[in-house]
Structure formats: C-alpha cells, structure tokens
C-alpha cells in the first residue's frame, strides 16, 4: 500500500465514522500517535490554559488545540485537516462520542501472581498469556462473556480494541503492576487498559510505524456497555460520578444564563463547563484548585461585563458543594478568586 493510499484510507475511515456514527475524530502524529500541536499557548504548555477557555476551540473552525478536545464531527473541518496534515493515523475521542474502549494488550513478559484487581484468579486456571486471557477470565468470573459483536479493531501488536457505547463518565486506567509487586492494584486487570473520559483510540484504516489497524468486527455499530463490565468498572473505581450517590445528593442544576452577545455566550459556556467538571470531581483530585482556577477565569469575565458576578458565585458554590467541599472553604476560595481576576481571552482570533 502506498503512502498516499494509506493516508487517504485513514482519513476516509475517520470521515465516514464522523458522518455516519457521529464520532468525534482527529488526526494524530505519525511519529508519536499523539494529538498534533495546537496554538502557541498549547505548544508552550502555558499554565492555566485549558480546553474550557481556549479561544481557538471557541471559534469552532478546527484549531487543533488541547489534544482530544479538538476532535470534531464536522466534515468540512475533517477535510481541511486531511489536506493539511498528511498523516495516516486518525483517532476517536471516546467520551465526546459516547464511547468506552477496552484496550487488550499482548505485551511480552510473565504475568503477575494476582492478575485481576480485587479478584482472586480461579484455582487451577493457567495464568493469562496476555490481556485477552485476563479479560476473558474476568468476564467469566463476572457472569458475562467477552463477545466481539461490537466495533472491534485489531492492533498491529496483536492486541484488540473493543468499543462500546455508554452514557457514563468512566475514568481511564492501565492494568499493570508496580516494580517489585505481584498484584494488579489499578484498573481491571493485567494488560487491560480502559479508555473513556479524555481518552482516544486509533481508528481502523490507520497505519502507524508498527503496522495497520484493521476492523475485525462485522459491525460498525458499538453495542451498549455490558452490565457485567459496568459493574466491574464501578467496583474498581472507574465511575467518575459515584462519589456521592445520586439518590441522596442530586446533581446541581446547570446554570441558565441569558446570553445575547458573543462574549456573554462564551462566558455562559465557560461557566457551564466549569460547574459540570467541578461537580463531578472526587476527593483528593484537586477540587480546591479547580474551584480557584474557575473563579479567577470567570471573575475576569464578570469584571468585563460578560456575565453577572452573583450568577457565577452561586453556580460555582453549588457545584463545589456537590463535589463535597465545605462551605467555609468554598467562601474563602471564591473570595480569593474574585480578588485575582484573569484577563478575558481574545475570542476573535487564535492566540
């Protein structure tokens, strides 16, 4: 296969999945399989510059900023990317597309003594040879089956990507052991990687330096996440929303802002994103810092007249309470944040 045909095949596959499946896709670097660089601030990794307030993304015209958060379903943007970036590797942003991927590896090396996180390996069962064996055993212990009647990709290394549809916010994980340990203590199990929120997988039709990614399933439709797998993910701490049970602490209402101008709409979107992300955070994940950063960013917009300060304070306080921060800490962080407003971004042009 020639380079040009390889590039065209990868871009065409990504375009088809975006149009027919509504998947958010983006090109990757051929050398690293990482998202391509974005604006100047993204490339320099400027502190406090994230996808929630990047003016490049706010324009919606295909700026490749903040990795997977730039992924799109827009055929025009995808075509421009394909023309500019002659790469043979394309990927799907899983969470934005309502997907979760189980990435089963076949890396060489002996398995640990305890290959499953939180479960004993069945007595008399041979140790797993790779992630496929580990996952099959986990499925059997959980009363389920692996099943490949979902969107499935064979990777060049001999591994497998199983892609499921989901409405959940699942954390990503890597199933590996620390040096000197004999037990998998994170993820689901040995050589099983989970990818969802903020994660991506390479799409079939792509060709990396290691080889071709091929769709091995007969279907291009991902099936809903199996109940046994969802239970296993919840048991091992992958659910980003289970810190507080919904029955006892309902999610905070999304703030509604009457936005008539471009800056007001931008500020309303920033507040919406900040509240959603903060409310979903768990203890010991930087809730205080997230509240402070969101406050300083929105304080600048309030100072510029883009949004009402009282609306910002009330919405952020409610999201912080939902995340479990104490009232005294919330008041202190809000006061500190509004005393240090950040300049508003230039939403008219790229940084």
Give me the secondary-structure topology:
Blueprint: H1 3-21, E1 25-27, H2 40-43, H3 55-59, H4 75-84, E2 90-93, E3 99-104, H5 131-141, E4 151-154, E5 160-165, E6 173-174, E7 192-195, E8 200-202, E9 207-208, E10 211-212, E11 214-215, H6 227-235, H7 262-279, H8 287-303, H9 309-323, H10 327-338
Main β-sheet, spatial strand arrangement: 6-7-3-5-4-11
**Total helical segments:** 10
Query: Helicity range of the residues?
Result: 25-40%
Report the biggest beta sheet as strand number plus sense, adding barrel if it closes: 6 strands, antiparallel
Q: Tally of extended strands?
A: 11
What structural class do the secondary elements suggest?
Answer: alpha+beta
Intertermini distance: 39 Å
Rg over CA atoms: 22 Å
Rough outline: globular
Q: How would you state the average pLDDT, rounded?
A: 84
Order of helices and strands: HEHHHEEHEEEEEEEEHHHHH
Uncertain residue segments: 243-249
User: Strand-residue fraction?
Assistant: 5-15%
Structure description:
With about 350 residues, this protein is α+β, with helices and mostly antiparallel strands. It has ten helices and eleven strands. The chain has helices at about 5-20, 40-45, 55-60, 75-85, 130-140, 225-235, 260-280, 285-305, 310-325, 325-340, and strands at about 25, 90-95, 100-105, 150-155, 160-165, 175, 190-195, 200, 205-210, 210, 215. The protein has a six-stranded antiparallel β-sheet, with helices on one face. Strands 1-2-8 form a three-stranded antiparallel β-sheet. β4 and β5 (about 160-165) form a beta hairpin. α7 packs antiparallel against α8 (about 285-305) and α9 packs antiparallel against α10 (about 325-340). The radius of gyration is 22 Å and the shape is globular.
């Amino acid at each position: 296969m020639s380079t040009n045909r390889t590039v065209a095949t990868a871009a065409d596959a990504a375009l088809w999945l975006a149009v027919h499946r509504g998947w958010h896709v983006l090109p990757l670097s051929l050398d690293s399989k990482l998202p391509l660089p974005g604006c100047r601030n993204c490339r320099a990794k400027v502190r406090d510059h994230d996808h929630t307030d990047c003016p490049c993304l706010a324009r919606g015209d295909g700026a490749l900023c903040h990795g997977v958060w730039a992924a799109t379903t827009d055929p025009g943007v995808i075509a421009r990317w394909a023309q500019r970036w002659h790469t043979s590797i394309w990927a799907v942003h899983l969470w934005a597309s309502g997907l979760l991927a189980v990435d089963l590896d076949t890396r060489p090396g002996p398995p640990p003594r305890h290959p499953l996180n939180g479960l004993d390996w069945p007595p008399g069962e041979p140790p797993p040879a790779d992630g496929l064996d580990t996952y099959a055993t986990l499925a059997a212990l959980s009363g389920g089956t692996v099943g490949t009647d979902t969107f499935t990709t064979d990777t060049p290394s001999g591994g497998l990507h199983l892609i499921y549809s989901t409405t959940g916010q699942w954390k990503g994980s890597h199933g590996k052991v620390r040096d000197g340990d004999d037990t998998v203590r994170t993820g689901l199990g040995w050589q099983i990687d989970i990818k969802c929120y903020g994660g991506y997988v390479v799409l079939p039709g792509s060709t990396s330096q290691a080889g071709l990614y091929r769709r091995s399933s007969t279907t291009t439709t991902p099936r809903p996440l199996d109940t046994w797998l969802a239970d296993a993910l919840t048991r091992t701490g992958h659910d980003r929303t289970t810190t507080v049970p919904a029955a006892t602490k309902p999610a905070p209402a999304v703030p509604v802002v009457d936005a008539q101008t471009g800056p007001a709409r931008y500020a309303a979107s920033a507040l919406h994103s900040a509240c959603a992300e903060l409310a979903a955070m768990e203890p010991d994940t930087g809730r205080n810092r997230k509240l402070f950063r969101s406050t300083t960013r929105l304080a600048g917009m309030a100072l510029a007249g883009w949004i009402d300060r009282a609306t910002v304070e009330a919405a952020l306080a409610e999201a912080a309470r939902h995340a479990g921060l104490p009232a005294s800490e919330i008041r202190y962080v809000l006061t500190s944040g509004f005393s240090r407003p950040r300049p508003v971004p230039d939403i008219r042009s790229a940084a």
